[in-house]
Amino acid sequence: MKNYDSYQHVRGESLFLDDLTSPEGVLHAAIFSSPIAHGLIKTIDFHEALNSSGVIAILSAKDIPGENQIGGIIPDEVLLASEKVDYIGQPIALVIADSYLNAKKASNKIKINLEKLPPIFDPREAFRNNSLIIPSRTFEIGDVERAWKSCDLIIEGTADSGGQEHLYLETQAALAYPQEGNKIKIISSTQSPTAVQRTTARILAIKMNQVEVDVTRLGGGFGGKEDQATAWAVMAALGAYKMKAPVKLVLKRNDDMRMTGKRHPYSSDFKIGLTNDLKILAYEVTFYQNAGAAADLSPAILERTLFHTTNSYFIPNVKATGISCKTNLPPNTAFRGFGGPQAMFVIESAIFKAAEKLGVDPFEIQEKNLLNEGDEFPFGQRAENCNARKTWNELKRKINFEKTKVNIRNFNQENNLIKKGFALMPICFGISFTNTLMNQANALVHIYTDGSVGISTAAVEMGQGVNHKLRQVAAELFSIDLEKVSIESTNTTRSANTSPTAASSAADLNGKALENACRIILDRIITNIARELKVDDLKRLLIKKNILLLDNKPTEFTWEKLIQKTYTDRVSLSAQAYYATPGIYFNRNINKGKAFAYHVYGTAFIETALDCLRGIYKITDVKIVHDFGKSLNPVIDKGQAEGALIQGLGWMTIEEVIYDERGKLITDTLSTYKVPDLHFTPDKVEINFLEDSENPMGIFNSKAIGEPPLMYGIGGYFAIANAIKAFKQDTNIDCKAPMTPEKVLISLYSESIKQKPLKITKES
Amino acid sequence: MNTQLKNIKFICNDSDVEINIHPGTTVLDFIRNTLRLTGTKEGCREGDCGACTILIGELINNRLIYSSANSCLLPMGHMNGKHLVTIEGLNLKKTLNPVQQAFVDEGGTQCGFCTPGFIISLTGYLLNANNYILSDAVNSLDGNICRCTGHIGIKRAVEKILQNFQYANNNETEKILLLIENNFLPEYFKNILNRLKEISLSLKEEFKATEKSKYIVSGGTDLFVQKWDDIINSDIVLINKSKEKLITEVDGKFFIMGEATVSDLINSEIIKSIFPDIKNYFNLFGSLPIRNRATVAGNIVNASPIGDITCFLLALNATVHLSNESLKRTVPLKDFFKGYKSLDKAPDELIESVSFEITSEKFLFNFEKVSRRTYLDIASVNSSVYLEILNGEIKEIHLSAGGVAPIPLYLKKTRNFLLNKKPEVDIIIDGAAILNEEISPISDARGSAEYKRLLLRQLFYAHFLKLFPEIINAEELL
């Protein structure tokens, strides 16, 4: 049950975009981008750059034949800026040359004259200036105003979470070829081939049927190539279209880091009210989302934040307001979790602060308020097949919680420079695109006359193993060897009008569409052979392990023979089928509905050891009980859970996106932006599969896995916070993530910074 | 336009390669663009992701020694007479080798982009280690970043490989044969030693500096990060390792050749005998492929305020030995740095060696470094201390700190204050106050000025807590 791409990966034989054999006469592009965060373009002088060695052309906004517009949700983003720039790194011109180095060198020779305008980087300041992407939105249940009166304790506070660089190992890349008939073919490293196709058509003023987009695989995506692969692909297409030659655009790492958006930083205000027996009665929260300079996917991300306001808890009175603030930073974008993690960090912060005030452990409040079957979410959906408590209890049993607690307490009593801390982190994540219309998919299946099967869907393989899962679906339905099934590239001419590979839903949606397509062909094959074998009751016929069975006895028809026979009888061996998630809807006027096909649940225990002298920490131990449904592929699913967990821990601890006061990214290299490495990874990570979980809404009863486990990482923040408090009980934990070693050390010694080192106790 | 071309002969995987090429072309570009071996990936071009890791096999005293390197920071000129191994060179015809198989079985690969680098690094470990120890094997992957797996499946794979294959031997030839026998390496590795010997007979002379020379490249681990696109258009000089001993001792005086790498330091018996903890200090320096290439002289001339080797040598009160065509001279390391990235060194002078003296047998030493990520990261602050105690008093002390000033700092005032005093809590607290006045950190990506001040105080305390656990009580100090 191994991911079938793995064989090629470990041999270095998988071909990523930059590995493809370059076509004859390929040209290379480099981007000239804005050096300031906000301003008006007065003049641009390409003269010297055009005379630079190897330069073929420099394309700017005026070279765009169609509409200079790439905005997906809201048309508010140009491909190439011509009048105004809104962030450092915003593309202005595309330099095309015979080599990348020549293109890059020439781009440094472009002279630009700008009139600076005052920039805004802080979302709250943007809000005060009414600089918003969309009007604010509010999700509400119960009546918070009335509920406050019944609360024994009300806590207010602020919680901030930082940005996160995707750091897919393969940078953004595209290769475009001009075709006959004014057509264009683009190979793109995108999660969203249809978006590339649609936007290219818009930019080039051609029809969508003149644009073919093909994707073989991505070297990681994590959401960073959902909306933000588009611009680069379209630029390559523009170059190819204008030059009538293939154009390749591969971003160098620091261009990629500077020019693309990240996970949205959020600054949020919360107010939480509880009774003395720890029941949360009311929760009010305002999320200030730092959207950056254009909408990108921010409105959808904000919406998912609102959907995940209460994480795994039932709170009867909730008022959650989301404000998408426009600032002069690169447009922030999708990142695994898509706004959900930001919401969960706030509710966990509120619980932490309430626990502090009440003198209890946060897990006592968490446990008291976990969702039960039938509980209503603030958006009106009810929890079905709710496994919140089941995973919580199962985890506590697995880690022998009472004993673990005592062990940690004892350790802390015996050690003064190393302190341990732990946290429990439950998660509840909704599965479906919250934009209901996107929950559709199609699949195209061909069976060739030798019995081999080729499958095309909208799913993009980016390491999550979706290709292998789809292969499993077809192999199981046809009951043939996996080796007979091949997953083709994701291509807009074979799969049209597709949704991006996102929202953890690619295996569900495309798997179900594939199931439908396979069943159509299977039905034709069986009907045809039944006629031949003079069998009236089709149920007597069954393909099992490459052989046709009649009344459970093997016939002479092997899979290959059966396929030959079907072909000879002139019955179609190809089918295209469709799937749309049933039963989901959402009314945006009242913000109520059944937005999700189902929820994914789980609980994590996270332990850390803190060096209180140096302020450095190690996450030492993570144990998780996760609801995978009936896992389609435990090796792949476990890998997804592990990778997401570590990415979430990275977001909460060492990963810090820093812009300077001019809006320039200063963490624009791998030497300044640090992601988890092998030593960061906890020594002990144990992922347990929740038993007996069924999920009829998922393919073969499985559950989506891509995003949810990332949110376990939030527990890392609170584990460290608890270790800090074990060293210094009265520390004020400010609920601002990430918890960097800097933050930790300053928390540990906040009051001594100014005094101790300056005070000379003895004259020398 | 630059026309500096050199004839370079080497073996790439199983093929002999001879080519006229600019010696500063990176190996990464050459293997991907010219040889079209695309299993080696470009991830960052700064030696921080490991997707471009390759192995270099070279003849050292007639032995074939392999080490890993980042091909994005590796000049072609240094490949002369070497064996270059890429992922394609590890593939067996019809089956996966046991390293590859373990990565597949244990979920050690997802998107696959970083994977060849990991396989290469681990194979480098198997070729290098005299006996296989799990923690060492894991450490050998400290230069590789995977964004998908969280490294958990990768660690499982490493564990499995070592469980199934245990071997202890320090004879390279036997080890290679055994690795071939167990399918870790293809057959052709058998003949590499002899093929390299043959090539070495016909090697052209080394490159020499000319007036046009713009860059002097030693390990290149920093220069190629900053200047790769300019290097290939410039005349460059490549420094090759001398055939002489890199690290020597004469009567308590230690000499380290400028071209000695960090790995050379860590593995030196001489250094290990005086600094038993050297491995713990310098495993925090870069990553294995970086340590294999980064040189002592490079770390010093780079003049980075947070150079780890420089910090270490400052606390040894080391002396820099400079030379050019006509002149040799020495400068105390603590006087070598004139200002930010400014040195007491003429453009044509090279650091020949660095020396230091250990006068007391009972000296104490400690190195501390804190960075945002513990491994493969640049220090927020680092600090080293050298101490001699006589009758309970500090008879000699050298103290250094990085990341707290425009230059790597020798903490003179703090030293003078501590000299001839007892290492006691009050004294150390007072010393920290002096220290605080001696530094001028700035806020940057590695931390705020306030943090760096606090952190250096803590590291200063850490020195004494570590060296005088009997005398100094943590609770009193903090």
CATH topology of the largest domain in chain A: Aldehyde Oxidoreductase, domain 4
Terminal-residue CA separation of chain B: 61 Å
CATH architecture of the largest domain in chain B: 2-Layer Sandwich
Q: Kindly report how far apart the N and C termini of chain A lie.
A: 72 Å
Q: Work out the number of β strands of chain B.
A: 18
Look up the CATH topology of the largest domain in chain B.
Uridine Diphospho-n-acetylenolpyruvylglucosamine Reductase, domain 3
Provide the spatial order of strands within the biggest beta sheet of chain A: 3-5-1-12-9-10-11-20
List low-pLDDT spans of chain A.
Answer: 755-764
Largest sheet of chain B: 5 strands, mixed
Task: Report the oligomer.
Answer: heterodimer
Instruction: Give the structural class of chain B.
Output: alpha+beta
Mean pLDDT of chain B, rounded to whole units?
94
Q: In total, how many domains does the architecture of chain A comprise?
A: 3
Spatial extent as radius of gyration of chain A: 28 Å
CATH first level of the largest domain in chain B: which class? Alpha Beta
CATH C-level label of the largest domain in chain A: Alpha Beta
Strand content of chain B: 15-25%
Shape of chain B: globular
Tally of helical runs of chain B: 18
- The shape of chain A, in one word, is globular
